[in-house]
Amino acid sequence: MATELEELLQFLSFPSLQVKKGAVDIVRDLTGSEDGLQALTYYSQIVFPSLSCLLAENKEISEPAAQALVNLSENSELSIKMIEYEYSPTKKMRAVLPTEISMKEHIWNSSQAGALVASVLQGDLRVLGKAMSLDKIVEPKRKRLATRCC
């Protein structure tokens, strides 16, 4: 039978944003206490990938996930586990990339790179975020590697 903490951690990948938000807030709060950190240490192989996947979510969910990861890293035992944790090795991440791309994909991604540079120079965070999220070559291929925890 699953413990309450195991059940809570399952909600980090729940489709409902409200449920996911509630779960990540509770996990973040747990990382703020020694007792919470101790409890999460036992489930570090679930906690790290689950919170890492949430970093790609909207700000409402990604911020508490990032705060939880920072809090976890302040515990020496957990920070060592974080360093040892392998989410997806570089070799695996490179293996899913295409060896050739179409001219259409190349032009699209090049224009996004230009928009990215322009947004940094102009200080336009909206365009920066949009340019970063519209990759059509690398991220769509790598996304399936992350779905096991998201």
Automatic annotation (TrEMBL):
This is Protein HGH1 homolog. Signal peptide: none annotated. Coiled coil: none annotated. Gene3D superfamilies: GHMP kinase, C-terminal domain (3.30.70.890). Keywords: ATP-binding, Kinase, Nucleotide-binding, Transferase. One of its GO terms (molecular function) is kinase activity. It comes from Coptis chinensis.
